[in-house]
Amino acid sequence: MTYRKIYENGCAALSAAGIEEAALDARLLLEYVCGTTRNDLLVHGDRPVESEQEEKYLQMIAKRRSRIPLQHLTGEQDFMGLTFQVNEHVLIPRQDTEILVEEVLKELHDGMRILDMCTGSGCILISLLHYSNGCQGVGADISEKALAVACENAKRFLGGEGSAVFLQSDLFEHVTGKYEFIVSNPPYIRSDVIPTLMPEVRDHEPMRALDGAEDGLYFYRRIVADGRAYLVRGGKLYFEIGHDQAEAVSALMRDAGFLEVTVVKDYAGLDRVVYGTYIK
């Protein structure tokens, strides 16, 4: 079967299964299996695909039809211009989270310390360290399996510099020291909303990285209340938030003594980041 034909078959199969981005997923899976690029489909679409590659591709398509996330099949996801390893133990990095990283980078200077709470794959902390100079960071997460992924990503992008340390901790349980920045993309989906999520998210991403308890604000309350003790004077706390949580999270921060509380929108015009400064 030719490269173009097998792609068309894969695209049709995913479309029939209701996959929203069937054409893109079919192409990315084909490139992953065959080690090719988009240009091969455009220029060399008439070349034959080896039987082993065809079989593997069809297996991948079948798994994607069952709503296993594309990123779990390829084992990677692009974020901030870097390709991170991912699996079922970590939340798949989203483009929306790049807003959080970009906002922190505006204020990050050489030699500063960062605490990334609920670090998951480590994509936030590692991106901040990768695009800064002489900074150090701690990534904390309750999941040992998530931290194993974060450590592999740190080796890939930070090498042996030792600028990132990953710590198994139930929030601040084992955290020590003071930081110029605390950043967090905590679980923030209301428990009653989780059954309505897409199957890729609901059935395949780690529940403890999604569930923000009854009102979705449990982890914001904990991090706002306890995080103050780990910030230097004038340190900043940055959160990613759900699109309807800006007012509630901003109020939590102001009530806890944070100043200059600011809301930042994402590229779709939705509230995405809240941050503030702690002086006391």
How far the N terminus sits from the C terminus, by CA atoms, comes to 68 Å
Helix/strand/pairing class, anyone?
Answer: alpha/beta
Low-confidence stretches: none
CATH architecture of the largest domain: 3-Layer(aba) Sandwich
Number of domains: 2
- The number of helical elements comes to 11
Estimate the global geometry from the Cα principal axes. Answer: elongated
Radius of gyration using CA atoms only? 21 Å
How many beta strands in the DSSP annotation? Answer: 9
In spatial order, strands of the major sheet run: 5-4-3-6-7-9-8
What do we call the CATH homologous superfamily of the largest domain?
Vaccinia Virus protein VP39
Q: How does the major sheet shape up? A: 7 strands, mixed
CATH fold name of the largest domain: Rossmann fold
So what's the CATH class of the largest domain? Alpha Beta
Q: Which series of helices and strands comes N to C?
A: HHHHHEEHEHEHEEHHEHEE
% residues in beta strands: 15-25%
Structure description:
- The mean pLDDT is 95.
- The chain is of the alpha/beta class.
- It has helices spanning 3-16, 22-34, 38-43, 51-65, 70-74, 97-105, 123-130, 144-158, 199-202, 218-227, 246-255, and strands spanning 76-79, 82-85, 113-117, 136-141, 164-168, 179-184, 231-240, 258-265, 271-278.
- It folds into two domains: 3-66; 74-278, Vaccinia Virus protein VP39 (Rossmann fold).
- It has a seven-stranded mixed beta sheet, sandwiched between helices. A two-stranded antiparallel ribbon has the order 1-2.
- Strand 3 (113-117), helix 7 and strand 4 (136-141) form a beta-alpha-beta unit.
- Helix 2 (22-34) runs antiparallel to helix 4 and helix 7 (123-130) packs parallel to helix 8 (144-158).
